[in-house]
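User: Can you model how fe (iii) ion sits in this protein?
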Amino acid sequence: MPGEAPSAAQLERNFRANGAILMPMSADAPSGPPPGARADWTIDQAWDRYTETEHQVWITLYERQAQLLPGRACEPFLKGLDALDLHRTGIPDFARINEELRRLTGWTVVAVPGLVPDDVFFEHLANRRFPAGQFIRRPDQLDYLQEPDVFHDVFGHVPMLTDPVFADYMAAYGQGGLRALHLGRLRNLARLYWYTVEFGLLETPQGLRIYGAGIVSSHAESRFALDDPSPNRLGFDLERVMRTPYRIDDFQQTYFVIPSLQSLLDVTVNTDFAPLYARLAKAADIPLAAIEPGDRVFTRGTQGYARAGGRTGKAA
Ligand code: PHE
Ligand code: FE
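Assistant: Here's the modeled complex, given as structure tokens:
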């Protein structure tokens, strides 16, 4: 369970709806790890203590997504899902996953109580440790919860970490995160994480495929992101993405498409972000549904979903 209730500011920065949650980034004035957590905020997964009901939530979510994702998620994700054999008995035992994951890419999953401070999060990533929420959502929260739980973190993020290129990208992002913190430009770098790690799409000869964890772990967004006429789908451009704010409370209004995982790794690792940050500090943000003259347009979205009020409009 998460230690303390997050502040409104944390909620705004860190959470979203639709069961698709993001970066466990947080706390303005980190006050140290909660009671029971280690100095690096990790805790024991205590796998033996999950209840039958909790395992059943995993199985329900897993089966729903496993049905939907072939032909939608990219090959590296589906391959990773298989390699880790995540569906076995319910919530996976991190110790078991880690044997295979360590062998494949040198990554491990570590349990955390919930949100961790930015610097702690980046430090873990830079050292190829992925912090995953230990708890799982309740049965009445299958489609909606505010915090990253073990289903989002492990089902959503960990399969991609079996891919050597993506594994390198995530570790490089961790280092980049520490640097952005230092330079005071986390606001821009967070958008890169958002539009790639959480909500990224990949162009393949068979069509667009999902690699973003926020999409693959959300039943509704797994369809919306690829099939709905509402959102824009635009070619990825590093600086453009870092100028684009994002939705934390509903489906994205724009998705960015990369031509390959390798190209994402290359452009981010080979670009010195310091001069870019300097430019971005003075550049205006691009409204989140805008299409710019230089954009490569895969889909010019109708924005019908957002205009109709999104999740709340639909519910009303
Ligand atoms: N090259 C980036 C920098 O100079 C670091 C980075 C790498 C950031 C990969 C994100 C992803 O800060
Ligand atoms: Fe996430």
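A couple of observations from the model: The longest strand covers residues 108-112. The mean pLDDT is 90.
User: Helpful, thanks.
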